[in-house]
Amino acid sequence: MSTPRSPGRRFTGADALILLNGVSTFGSGLVYPYTALYLSELPEMGTAGISVFYGAAAAANLVTAAVLATGWIKPPPTRLGFAGTLMLAVGFLGTAAAGSLTALFAAVLFIGCGQGCLLVSMVPVLSSLTPREQRRSVFARRYRAINVGLGLGAVVAGLTTGFFATSAVTWLFVANALSYLPLTYAFHRLRARERREEVRGAEREAAGAPREEAAEAQEAADGRLKWLGAAGALAVLFQLGAYLFGHSQFEATSPLVAVQLMGIGLGTVSALLLVNTAVVALGQTWVTRLLSSRDETFGLRTAVLLWVAAYVVAMGSAFGPLPVRYAGLLLFAVVFAIGECAYSCSFHPWLIDSVEAKDVSRVSALASGAMGIGTAAGPSIGVALTLTGEAPVVWLGLASLCLLLLFTLGRRHLAARNPADGTAGAAPEQTPASHTGETT
Question: Are 305 and 409 in contact, with CB atoms under 8 Å apart?
Fold first, then answer.
């Protein structure tokens, strides 16, 4: 049953974490549009600095996610988030001060490892702070905060560089580093609260509560050796496909096709990104409310079909005159953004419900790695399609590939036999047989 909205809803720990996550992404928005330009203009860096920055960061991120996914080390998610944000702050400060490729490489290793830790930690921490029936709303608000933060950061960076040129980018890196510190403090406070709860739990055990250390040790050993199961694998595959055929194509391929194959000006590319961000920011609450009476699998199917529809709209507009192409691409950006809204409020609740509670961090690590691979490899798929020289072929190819994502959703209700529990006060779980009628 959907939770009624209360005008006086209390500001929760999850809200605070989302707000501070938005602050950190505001910092990211300050530097990411200008990172390559800034590094290329430094005499000590040049194009080699660009390759080091993006290559080493991606590699460190993937290695971190892979190590955490093995389960050999299992730091509490709050400790992982604390370490991740601290490494990001150190890494971006180091980037601002780097005077050689070696120093840049060392700083970027901190950035990549920090990104890996932060991405893995956010899902289980938010889940632990949120009753099950509110997860969809919480992860939707987080996605909106990330988009708004990035957009506002990019606007402020544009105004700053407009007044001070790229010489100001060094200080934007410093500002980005500082933007992670409030989130670091939040993770510290959450970890301190967990330690107090652990002490109280130990005191209750000392007073006579039964201990299950042997069973827990055996479960941990089994968890290191056993694959996470079909449901976890499907969640990771969906995340990989969503970034291979969805997110990365909007960010990388659509501007390329618009400019090179559809004769659209560079200004329209900026307009597409602006429209996409605005629709996500303004439409996320509406889409979340619209999907609240259906299960998360339905929300993900909706996201995929909306992305396919967006590609089909762009394909149809490619056959028209220039005004039709402009209008078609703007509509493409709107429809794609609505699909993103459906994805953002459905994927992580679906992932959490697809695995047992003890495996949420591990499968989050795998999903994070899949996101990194999809983001890195996805543009190559789009570029390969553009070699045909025909915009309709590119859009049709992307729509067809996107439809493959539906196969990762088809049997999800059979695989998720042991969904993760929520937090204290979470709603009772539905049985697999009733999944198609489940509401949140």
Answer: no
